[in-house]
Design brief:
Glycosyltransferase, 12 helices, about 55% helix, globular
Length: about 400
């Protein structure tokens, strides 16, 4: 039996029978608007604060479900519900998206993370793609211009829940804005926005990738130099793997075949760096020079998102190389993921420790419909077309 056909069936079933129904049952906040992002694995509400990070992600997911999987009215209705929440809540007087609101819309944490702006931009872009909404277009362009200006001014933005020390730039900003700007450029057919996206994309390969260590690090100097400190030596293999499939999707559109092949090689390298040979699964972080302890919190733990991003990345690598390691790694990660994260309600638990014990959420206290459904959407699209 063709394993790819079987995997495509598995991913479609997981998405449509398990994950999306969980969010339709438990995640739509009809009373206060948006999605409820404080939920446990059973779908119980644990609080009513709204993290705007999660609202932007939900807008992206339900828009893309409608656009790339099936044109179900209920999914478009959820996207519109979240869009209406965001259009009414969440930006400060300077147009920056805030981090957290209470149930009534009062700001609890203001502009402490430019990642929020990025996720809202991504959501607005995809909602614009399916509706043609002039308001979504305006919000997306205003968010683009706002973030572009701030990224150009080091020190003018923060990256909660992480810390960015003075004089450094972070891989996370380069990778997410490479993709989100590129998607906006695709929808609007704007070459100037695509150039901004490519600048960030090539920063990943030319600044954050360190050839002498054959790895992507999380922090470098503003001019792209290595920092021999705990922060500068931090490598998060799953983050690198996620970033690399982002870049492949960008370079597919721009035709940079050489960079695509480099990204595929680096996906394999970071799978090897992150894999736990004793207990299986991809661990979170390491010091690229092997010094202990690594800078990152919970380095030997295994979040769900690391595993699902590796599934997407290996599918992209198979599409472009047809080399056997892609499917071998895909199967290995898949077996670990499906053995450790799914829960009876249809969602996935988010963290396990090194030995596979479930740990609850060790990052933000949120659950949102993003990494898992996004991975499943991409996997369905890649594998139902046989990865070609």
């Amino acid at each position: 039996m063709d394993p790819i056909a079987g995997w495509a069936t598995l991913y479609r079933k997981t998405l449509l029978d398990d994950v999306v129904p969980f969010w339709l049952r438990h995640g739509i906040d009809r009373e206060f608007g948006g999605i409820g992002n404080l939920l446990d694995d059973a779908g119980n509400v644990t609080g009513h604060d709204k993290y705007l990070w999660s609202q932007g992600r939900a807008l992206w997911t339900f828009s893309v479900l409608y656009n790339r999987i099936e044109r179900r009215t209920e999914w478009l209705d959820v996207a519109t519900h979240v869009f209406n929440y965001l259009r009414s809540h969440g930006r400060d007087a300077e147009g920056r998206w805030v981090f957290r609101l209470n149930k009534d819309g009062t700001v609890l944490d203001g502009d402490i993370s430019i990642y929020v702006d990025g996720f809202v931009l991504a959501g607005m872009t995809e909602y614009l793609a399916i509706t043609g909404s002039s308001e979504a277009k305006q919000i997306a362009l205003e968010t683009y211009e706002n973030t572009r200006a701030r990224i150009a001014r080091p020190g003018s933005y923060r990256v909660a829940p992480y810390v960015l020390e003075g004089g450094m730039k972070t891989h996370g900003v380069a990778m997410v804005f490479a993709l989100f700007y590129s998607e906006l450029a695709r929808v609007l057919k704007r070459e100037d926005i695509e150039r901004e996206a490519l600048d960030h994309a090539y920063q990943v390969l030319n600044h954050f990738y360190r050839p002498d260590r054959n790895a992507i690090v999380e922090f470098v100097t503003q001019d792209g130099q290595f920092i021999d400190s705990p922060e500068g030596r931090a490598c998060v293999p799953g983050h690198a793997i996620e970033s690399l499939w982002f870049l492949i999707s960008i370079f597919e559109r721009t035709g940079d075949a050489e960079s695509i092949q480099k990204c595929c090689r680096l996906i394999r390298r970071h799978l090897e760096l992150g894999w736990d040979p004793e207990f299986g699964g991809l661990m979170l972080a390491l010091d690229i020079d092997g010094k202990q302890p690594p800078y990152w919190k919970h380095p030997t733990h295994k979040p769900w998102w690391v595993q699902v991003e590796a599934l997407v990345a290996t599918a992209f690598a198979w599409r472009h190389t047809k080399q056997s390691w892609c499917l071998e790694w895909h199967e290995k990660v898949q077996k670990f993921a499906f053995a450790h994260y799914p829960v009876a309600t249809g969602e996935w638990t988010q963290w396990v420790d090194r030995e596979g014990k479930r740990m609850g959420n060790l990052a933000l206290p949120v659950k949102d419909p993003f990494h898992l459904p996004r991975a499943l959407i991409y996997l369905i699209n890649l594998f139902e077309s046989k990865g070609s």
